[in-house]
């Protein structure tokens, strides 16, 4: 039933769907009376985004961004935007939707970029929260689905060497596989 490369299933398809319902209901209340821009961070956030928006009961706009940060010799790499948002976000309520927050380095840069464009508000929603961050240095998610231990997970958008994103559940990758790569 499950992929042999998975050591342990953390969240089943059913658990994921339930959590997305919960988050969707909560976010619909939070943004009631506004037309927020839900920003899908390609590529990993796509399955979470698709599941989440099914549970949004207010008007909203869907936008996409594909960005990463180049880690040079310094830990403060620059943000590399490969695909930018299609609209002007000045005075808009923006919700960044991503699969997982780990060190938070990339998210902090994206957050600052969106704030600099004059958004009315910028909030962060991730499905998973891997608390792997130095407090006060990088950003925290405003909303998230589950806390997970500091382990490498795949599925529901999350990859290992760019594969396994299509698994409908989230699992911990076997250590042997992780080491081989
Ligand atoms: P951060 O900048 O360290 O917060 O990491 C950001 C990105 O790293 C996430 O958006 C994911 O794409 C990736 N990432 C972090 N942890 C994992 C994991 O356990 N599995 C798969 N991808 C991960
Ligand atoms: Mg990502």
Topology, please?
Elements: E1 6-11, H1 13-30, E2 37-42, H2 46-53, E3 61-69, E4 79-83, E5 93-101, H3 105-116, E6 121-129, E7 143-147, E8 153-154, E9 170-173, H4 175-180
Parallel strand pairs: 2-3, 2-5, 5-6, 6-7
Antiparallel strand pairs: 1-9, 3-4, 8-9
Helix pairs in contact: 1-2
The protein binds inosinic acid and magnesium ion (MG).
Inosinic acid is lined by residues 44, 98-107, 130, 152-154, 158-159.
How is this structure best described in words?
This protein is 24% helix and 30% strand. With 181 residues, it is α/β, with parallel strands linked by helices. Strand 5 (93-101), helix 3 (105-116) and strand 6 (121-129) form a beta-alpha-beta unit. Helix 1 (13-30) crosses helix 2 (46-53). It starts with 5 loop residues before the first strand and ends with a helix. Inosinic acid binds at residues 44, 98-107, 130, 152-154, 158-159.
């Amino acid at each position: 039933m499950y992929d042999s490369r998975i050591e342990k299933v953390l969240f089943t398809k059913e658990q994921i769907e339930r959590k997305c319902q919960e988050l969707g209901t909560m976010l619909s209340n939070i943004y009631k009376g506004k037309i927020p821009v839900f920003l899908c961070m390609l590529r990993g956030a796509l399955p979470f985004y698709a599941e989440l928006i099914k549970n949004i009961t207010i008007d909203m706009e869907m936008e996409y961004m594909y960005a990463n940060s180049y880690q040079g010799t310094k830990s403060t790499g620059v943000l590399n935007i490969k695909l930018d948002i299609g609209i002007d976000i000045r005075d808009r309520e923006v919700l960044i939707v991503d699969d997982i927050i780990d060190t938070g380095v990339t998210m902090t840069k994206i957050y600052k970029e969106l704030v600099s464009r004059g958004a009315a508000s910028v909030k962060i929603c991730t499905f998973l929260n891997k608390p792997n961050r130095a407090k006060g240095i990088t950003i925290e998610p405003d909303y998230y689905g589950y806390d997970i231990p500091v382990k490498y997970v795949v599925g529901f958008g999350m990859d290992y060497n760019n594969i396994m994103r299509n698994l409908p559940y989230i699992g911990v990758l076997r250590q042997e596989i992780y080491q081989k790569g």
